[in-house]
Design goal:
mainly alpha
Length: 80
């Protein structure tokens, strides 16, 4: 695994594991967001990723209320 470890993870792993949730990935994602904003780089996540990630709670609720039926995630890109 060490051979394929991403350079960002290599750099931040120790701190991420001590302060970040979800085995450090929360810290890594926050760090990358701030780094990209600070350096004027494109973000790792776009508005479509954010929409998909944030709809999960509501869709999970709908699934549970329907007896745990599958609920389709909307295509926020409209086919793009």
């Amino acid at each position: 695994m060490a051979r394929y470890k991403h350079p960002v993870w290599q750099e931040l792993e120790e701190k991420a594991l001590t302060v970040g949730g979800h085995n450090g990935i929360d810290y890594i994602m926050d760090y990358r967001l701030v780094e990209c904003l600070h350096k004027g780089l494109p973000l790792d996540m776009d508005v479509y990723d954010a929409a998909e990630w944030n709809c999960i709670v509501k869709l999970s609720e709908q699934s549970i209320l329907g007896g745990s039926v599958p609920v389709q995630i909307p295509d926020f890109t409209r086919g793009r």
